[in-house]
């Protein structure tokens, strides 16, 4: 009887170990697939500017007596592609460093009102180019424990998108609030919006709703994955809501255990 009992328990334990092992193998397989997909995407994205540069350089070489104006235009295009390649590599480096571990966060006390204001001030000239008005509504003074540089970069990315994907004469409304648990930032624009089926994908690496449009505006498709990563490292959340042709709202929430209100 005792042997039977042990037998049953033994079987059960073996099954449990087998299930855990299975889960681990599946997770590793999934991670490996993601890694391969990422490497494929990186190669593709890095090759695109290179191909353009090659075509441009070859055109320059093959045409004799080309007017100086045209010559300059081609060279400017080549320079833009170099800038683009640089931007992709920089964004990739940021992502890869963030992937390593969480210790890169250097927590300090951050004055959120000041942070938002300085980000908006820096981006005002960009907004002015499209006659976009930025309104900032702050409901209270909020201080938080966070990595100021990374949070500032994250907000810059979201507001930059709100400008890039907005219409001429559009509007951007930024709000900052907090309750006893969290701090909340929303960035709402009156731009082109995002199709419903793409909303969940915008945080994926290299995902762009409209590759051509995003390319024209200098996008790499990495910005929002960096933003999401930053927010997650601060144990917060970011979500996106959008109405096509009406506008998009990004809502950031950071938990209170790293936040103290002033
Ligand atoms: P990108 O460098 O292309 O801007 P992001 O990761 O920042 O990359 O954004 C991914 C995609 O999400 C963009 O290419 C764009 O299609 C879409 N997107 C992001 N923000 C907005 C916005 N405010 N309005 C409309 N579309 C947006």
Automatic annotation (TrEMBL):
Q: Cellular component GO terms, alphabetically?
A: plasma membrane
Q: What is this protein called?
A: histidine kinase
This protein's UniProt keywords: Kinase, Membrane, Phosphoprotein, Transferase, Transmembrane, Transmembrane helix, Two-component regulatory system
Report where the shown chain sits in the full-length sequence: first residue, last residue, total length.
196 to 457 of 457
The species this protein belongs to is Anaerotalea alkaliphila
Query: Which EC numbers characterise this protein's activity in its record?
Result: 2.7.13.3
Q: Which residues form the HAMP domain?
A: 1-33
Q: Specify the domain of life of the species encoding this protein.
A: Bacteria
Q: GO biological process annotations for this chain's record? A: cellular response to phosphate starvation
Q: According to its UniProt record, where is this protein located?
A: Membrane
- Where does the record place the Histidine kinase domain? 41-258
Coarse class of the protein's main subcellular location: membrane
């Amino acid at each position: 009887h005792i042997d039977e009992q042990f037998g049953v328990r033994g079987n059960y334990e073996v099954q449990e170990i087998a299930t855990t092992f299975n889960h681990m193998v599946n997770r590793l397989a999934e991670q490996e697939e993601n890694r391969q997909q990422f490497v494929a995407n990186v190669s593709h994205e890095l090759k695109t500017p290179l191909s353009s540069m090659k075509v441009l350089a070859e055109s320059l070489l093959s045409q004799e007596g080309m007017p100086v104006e045209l010559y300059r235009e081609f060279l400017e295009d080549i320079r833009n592609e170099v800038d683009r390649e640089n931007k992709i590599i920089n964004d990739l480096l940021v992502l890869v460093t963030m992937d390593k571990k969480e210790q890169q966060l250097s927590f300090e006390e951050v004055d959120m009102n000041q942070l938002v204001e300085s980000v908006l001030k820096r981006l005002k000239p960009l907004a002015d180019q499209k006659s976009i008005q930025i309104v900032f509504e702050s409901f209270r003074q909020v201080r938080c424990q966070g990595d100021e540089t990374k949070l500032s970069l994250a907000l810059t990315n979201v507001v930059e998108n709100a400008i890039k994907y907005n219409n001429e004469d559009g509007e951007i409304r930024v709000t900052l609030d907090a309750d006893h648990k969290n701090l909340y930032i929303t960035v709402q624009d009156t731009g082109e919006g995002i199709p419903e089926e793409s909303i969940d994908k915008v945080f994926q690496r290299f995902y762009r709703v409209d590759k051509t449009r995003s390319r024209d505006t200098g996008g790499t498709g990495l910005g929002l994955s960096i933003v999401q990563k930053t927010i997650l490292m601060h144990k917060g959340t970011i979500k996106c809501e959008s109405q096509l042709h009406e506008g998009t709202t990004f809502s950031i929430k950071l938990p209170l255990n790293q936040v103290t209100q002033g």
